[in-house]
Amino acid sequence: MRIVLVGPPGAGKGTQAVRLAKELKIPHISTGDLFRANISRKTELGKLAKSYMDAGNLVPDEVTIAMAKDRMEQEDAVNGFLLDGFPRNVAQAEALDELLKTEKIKLDAVLDLEVPEEEVVKRIAGRRLCRNKAEHVFHVTYTPPKAEGVCDVCGGELYQRDDDSEDTVRTRLEVYHTQTEPIIDYYKAQGLVATISALGAVDEVTKRALDALKRDGDEEK
């Protein structure tokens, strides 16, 4: 299957992408991984992307698209892939369509992870990280530490990242609504969108997504 995963920050896209890709036996292709891989391998695209990033500028769509094209042409993606973080806007979605048309393949589904805005703010703004070990993550509501501000695991100080503040989260949401959300209508016009509630346990969300993909597959038959 060839799938695009869409959703606002805090919807759990990264977690669901890994789980779905494993279940469907297809590679998980994320924009962040593409940038890191190309920059670490010092590919021409990686050098180009780094030059924009080092200057504090956004990486142009054509560079992101070229990286995605290169990754989708690798052997493990021949029979399918799950795209996470790409396309990020309608221009990228149109470019992806052209690319797939050239390869004589098409998307099977676009999974839209839906979360109420206030829940997104609650999820992200409530997150606390340990200064000693970044992988020690707590949440003031869902997984609070035993002692406020203290890591249960190592006793380190817990803190809130600057980009997890409520104001920053709301700004990120506005960017999502303005730039990325329009691709949902773009793909709805093609009959590809399955909207999934991303509320509840991780396993429940994964099951909803797999059930939606199965329904879409059955309907195509």
Structure, explained:
It catalyses: AMP + ATP = 2 ADP. Catalyzes the reversible transfer of the terminal phosphate group between ATP and AMP. Plays an important role in cellular energy homeostasis and in adenine nucleotide metabolism. Residues 30-59 are annotated as: NMP. Residues 1-214 form the Guanylate kinase-like domain. This protein is α/β, with parallel strands linked by helices and 221 residues long. It has a domain at 2-27 and 74-115 and 179-220: Rossmann fold (3-Layer(aba) Sandwich), CATH 3.40.50.300. It is built from 9 helices and 8 strands. The strands form 2 sheets. Strands 2-3-1-4-8 form a 5-stranded parallel sheet, with helices on both faces. The longest helix has 19 residues, at 202-220. The chain is globular and about 55 Å long.
Shape: globular
Mean pLDDT: 93
Beta fraction? 5-15%
CATH class of the domain at 2-27 and 74-115 and 179-220: Alpha Beta
Number of helices: 9
Protein name: Adenylate kinase
GO molecular function, one term: ATP binding
InterPro entries: Adenyl_kin_sub, Adenylat/UMP-CMP_kin, Adenylat_kinase_CS, Adenylate_kinase_lid-dom, Guanylate_kin-like_dom, P-loop_NTPase
Function: Catalyzes the reversible transfer of the terminal phosphate group between ATP and AMP. Plays an important role in cellular energy homeostasis and in adenine nucleotide metabolism.
